[in-house]
Amino acid sequence: MTRSFPPACQAFLSDLNRSLSLSPDHIQHMIRDFHLDMEKGLRGRDSSLNMLPSFVDRPEGDERGRFLALDLGGSHLRVLEVALHGKGKAEALALKTFVIPKREMQETGARLFDFIAACIDRFLSDCLIDRGKIHDLAFAFSFPFHQTGIASGKLLGWTKGFTATGVEGRDVVFLLNEALRRKQISCLRVAALTNDTVGALMAASYSDSTCDMGVILGTGTNACYREKQINIYKLKGRRPKEHMIVNMEWGGFDKARRTSYDMRVDELSVNPGAMYFEKMVSGMYLGEITRLILLDAIRRGLVFQDYPNGPDRLHEKHALKAEDMSLIEQDETAGLDKAGAFLNHRGICSTLFDRFFLRRVCQLVSERSIRLSAGAISAVISWMDPDLAHMHTVAVNGGLFEKYAGYEMRLTKAVSEHCCGQADRIRLVYSRDGSGIGAAITAAVAASINTAEPPSFSP
Ligand code: GLC
After folding, report:
1. Is 19 a known active-site residue?
2. What is the β-pairing status of strands 76-86 and 145-149?
3. For FRET with 232, which of 13, 26, 312, 403 sits at 20 to 30 Å CA-CA?
4. 8 Å CB contact between 282 and 400
5. Quick check: helix, strand or coil at residue 6?
6. Is 196 a catalytic residue?
């Protein structure tokens, strides 16, 4: 469809395509840089990949029990009751989702944790949980933290738009317990703290022993994988034969080629100078990249010519979201009517030509996100198994993977292109409710090995 664009527009789109596309050479470079930073992170040296030990390995599949789970991710908080039946069978018996208001994310930590305690209180009442008994609570906390015990960890720094004060550097389980005490909830004992990537891996590997990687492609992005303890050089008391899951915090990777739009997205974010990879890949930022590209094209007089400075709405941060892009990309109508209705709804008049242009930009931005994710997944698998001698199941969770038009299919295809004819050795599976169920499995694994305090390491 780009062929029908006027020359100036076509030139703009070709330049954009050039700066967003990733050649096989780029990907090979990126994989090498990933490996270098993984190595440095594991050694405890300065690296854009934190490589945080989680102190658990994947489950056997026979862990059992009932747990409550708390999943604090991006825009939503989920509280679940999880039953582990053994033989790889786990189910969420009850689940409630709460939207986290912006003030809770961005004012004080006490306000955020009081909100969490209030949501738990609602869950306990609505789901008729017996408050006369002590229940184990597994906490999936989808942020980078330095694990100091199986149920304790200090937040290293907020990501994904959170800025609540007084939390960075503190033990988040302690802060949760304080808030539960303020709310007079005394029937819960926090039994495990996990990152959401670890949760996804734990949940999928409960029934599938080939699963050795967890990936989140949602509001944020990150991955964890199974590492030999002997390779986690920064870990004291390493054991040669054992494995441990490492939370990479790959959203911080800083060696992928960035465009001027990426730099502007970073400047406008609440955490400038950090999480470059996340800001190129994840759902929270794809709309921002697209919005800035569109404003640039408007400024050059190429599209939306009724608005020389761009529609007011497009000047608002996060006015365009990944789900809007998905809707626009999926629009198969000849007149791109769905895209038109979406714009109209926001008070923006558009021509057919504007809409085709917008759709093309969405395609280029989402395609780069997919190519970068595929490159990163290949980097981790080739680190674990350079000859692809084994089967690897990758548990993926997150709205981008689950809901963005064609993302899952395009990602699977892109990963297979890096496998030199061995594409059947890598399988991506969607890990439903992975974070919460996986956190509960972590609590069960911890109970079975009775690890009160993990070995120490220098972060
Ligand atoms: C952000 C967090 C990371 C989390 C990811 C996905 O990158 O730093 O801990 O796993 O988002 O939710």
Report:
1. no
2. unpaired
3. 26
4. yes
5. coil
6. yes
What's residue 457's pLDDT?
Answer: 55
Instruction: Name the nearest CA neighbour of 26 among 288, 296, 414, 421.
Output: 414
Query: Letter for the amino acid at 223?
Result: A
pLDDT at 456: 56
> Quick check: 57 and 242 in contact, CB under 8 A?
yes
| Residue 121 is a catalytic residue | no
Centre of ligand 1 to C-alpha 280, Å, is 14
Instruction: Report yes or no: 457 and 238 within 8 Å, Cβ to Cβ.
Output: no
Domain ranges (residues) in the chain: 54-206+432-448+453-457
Residue 160 beta carbon below 6 angstroms from any ligand 1 atom:
yes
In DSSP terms, 138 is beta-bridged to 69, 192
User: Is any atom of ligand 1 closer than 6 Å to the C-beta of 152?
Assistant: no
pLDDT band at 210 (very low <50, low <70, confident <90, very high): very high
Compute how many other C-beta atoms are within 10 angstroms of the C-beta atom of residue 389: 8
CA–CA gap between residue 219 and residue 285 (Å, rounded): 8
Ligand 1 atom at shortest distance from the alpha carbon of 196: 10
Distance 74 CA to ligand 1 centre (A): 8
Cα-Cα-Cα-Cα dihedral sign, residues 439, 444, 447, 449: negative
For residues 407-424, average pLDDT: 88
* Average pLDDT over all residues of the chain: 93
- What's the CA gap between 111 and 117, in Å, rounded? 10
Q: Which atom of ligand 1 is nearest to the CA of 278?
A: 7
H or E stretch covering 362? helix 352-384
Question: What single-letter amino acid sits at 451?
Answer: T
The position carrying tokens 């759902």 is: 283
Counting every residue written for the chain, the total comes to 459
Query: Tens digit of pLDDT for each residue in 258-300?
Result: 999 999 999 999 999 999 999 999 999 999 999 999 999 999 9
Whole-angstrom distance, CA of residue 13 vs CA of residue 2: 8
Q: Please report the sign of the dihedral spanned by the C-alpha atoms of residue 116, residue 121, residue 126, residue 131.
A: positive
Catalytic residue (one of 48, 54, 78, 366)? 78
Residue-wise pLDDT tens digits, 350-376: 999 999 999 999 999 999 999 999 999
Mutate to test the pocket of ligand 1, among 141, 196, 245 (most ligand atoms within 8 A of CB): 196
Q: What is the mean pLDDT of residues 431-445?
A: 89
Pocket of ligand 1 contains residue 143 by CB under 6 Å: yes
Report pLDDT for 433. 78
Ligand 1 pocket member 73 (CB < 6 A): yes
Specify the CATH superfamily of domain 54-206+432-448+453-457. ATPase, nucleotide binding domain (3.30.420.40)
The answer to whether 355 and 336 have CB atoms below 8 angstroms apart is yes
